[in-house]
Design a protein that fits this description.
By secondary structure, the chain is α+β, with helices and mostly antiparallel strands. Helix content is 64%, strand content 11%. It has helices at 35-44, 51-54, 72-80, 111-119, 136-147, 149-174, 179-199, 205-217, 219-233, 242-257, 264-290, 295-315, 319-375; strands at residues 2-10, 13-19, 61-68, 89-96, 100-104, 107-109. A hairpin with a 2-residue loop joins strand 5 and strand 6 (107-109). Helix 5 crosses helix 13 (319-375) and helix 10 (242-257) runs antiparallel to helix 11 (264-290).
């Protein structure tokens, strides 16, 4: 039942507030007093009009609000769509001439949903109402209402089956019609996947191989340079070594520190430097003991680097890009195989679903025919 009606800037109504009581309510008035506009106001609650068709000239905005005590169907419907429902149902339309929004109990809803709610909340019988009798859809809805629970479960089953049927048809359109093209794409993907797999590249391997190549390719330079460093640190027939020179500095500072204690701290720092240089010398000797030139290893590294660079050139440019593309190729292959398997069974599934719909349709027609015989 409609309890209250409020509107602002609706056609010639600057503002209107109405309350209704239980039972029969009558609105009367002379020609031109706004009775038809009030009916249009009721129709507007279902979202039948565009904003520019109902907004008045009093201001830039408009709003319509109606309060219903609700019915069992709408209470369940609101509950299903998680719209707050505490007894009364408030429907509100508001906006400008460009657009407006519809709300039920404060929640924005699409006009299609609003129309569905209002269909079960009120009916408007006007001079042209008989035209509905020419509409087959109206006939169907009328019979469905009389049929009640006898047919509702079958209609629900039909809606579900029809959705599954249309989903299958949509999938059929998305699946490739030319399987030979798909198979060629699959074969190329398999080639790419196999090429990356056979390369067996590890994370950051390009950096590691490059570093090893730098060392082996510059073996003589590194070895000779390190021997020169050792000669400078330890001994050299042409001039004193760094260690000898530092030892001389240490002795001189030690003698001076006997005269001035503040100089002794410098001597301590020289001792640390000497110890550090000795450690560096020992490390260099140890490195040179194990530092060997391996021509086969150099060739192997060069060949490995060519493989890595070739893979990076084709699927990179970075090594991470190669790994990312590999994952993408594997996923694409998986999807293509899934589609090829789906193609084999899809036609049968569509055929079976069409037969199911046909069977449900026959049952629904039979039930509706019984309703017609028993009702009219």
């Amino acid at each position: 039942m409609l309890l209250e009606m409020h509107a602002r800037n609706f056609l010639l109504f600057k503002e209107i507030d109405l309350s209704f009581s239980e039972g029969f309510n009558v609105i009367t008035g002379e020609t031109g007093s706004g009775k038809s506009m009030f009916v249009k106001l009721l129709r507007a609650l279902s979202g039948e009009y565009k904003a520019k068709e109902i907004i008045g000239n009093f201001e830039d905005k408009f709003w319509i609000e109606a309060v219903f005590n609700g019915n069992e169907f709408n209470r369940k419907l609101l509950e299903e769509y998680e719209i707050p429902n505490e007894g009364e149902m408030v429907v509100r339309l508001s906006g400008t001439c460009e657009r407006y929004t519809s709300r039920i109990n404060g929640i924005i809803v699409p006009l299609s949903f609003l129309n569905k709610v209002m269909e079960s909340e009120m009916e408007i019988h006007s001079q042209n109402a008989f035209q509905k009798l020419k509409n087959n859809v109206f006939h169907t809805k009328l019979i469905d209402r009389f049929a009640g629970s006898e047919i509702s479960s079958k209609l629900t089953a039909y809606e579900l089956a029809y959705k599954e049927y249309t989903d299958l048809l949509t999938l059929q359109k998305e699946l490739p019609g030319n399987t030979s093209t798909v198979i060629r794409n699959l074969e190329f993907l398999e080639f790419q996947i196999k090429e990356i797999q056979e390369a067996n590249i590890k994370n950051d391997e390009d950096i590691k191989v490059s570093d090893e190549l730098k060392v082996l390719s510059n073996y003589e330079f590194i070895k000779n340079s390190l021997f020169d460093v050792i000669n400078l640190l330890e001994n050299n027939s042409d001039y004193p070594s760094i260690s000898d020179s530092l030892y001389t500095v240490h002795q001189k500072l030690e003698k001076i520190s006997e005269l001035d204690e503040s100089i002794s701290k410098w001597n301590s720092e020289i001792e640390v430097i000497v110890d550090n240089l000795s450690e560096i010398g020992r490390n260099i000797f140890s490195f040179l003991d194990s530092f060997e030139y391996d021509e086969q290893e150099l060739i192997s590294l060069e060949m490995r680097m060519k493989v890595i660079e070739n893979i990076k050139k084709k699927y990179g440019p970075k090594l991470q890009d190669v790994f990312d593309n590999y994952e993408k190729f594997v996923e694409e292959k998986k999807q293509i195989l899934s589609k090829l398997n789906r193609i084999k069974t899809l036609d049968k599934e569509i055929e079976y679903k069409a037969l199911e719909l046909s069977g449900l349709d026959d049952e629904i027609k039979k039930n509706k025919a019984e309703v017609r015989r028993n009702t009219f």
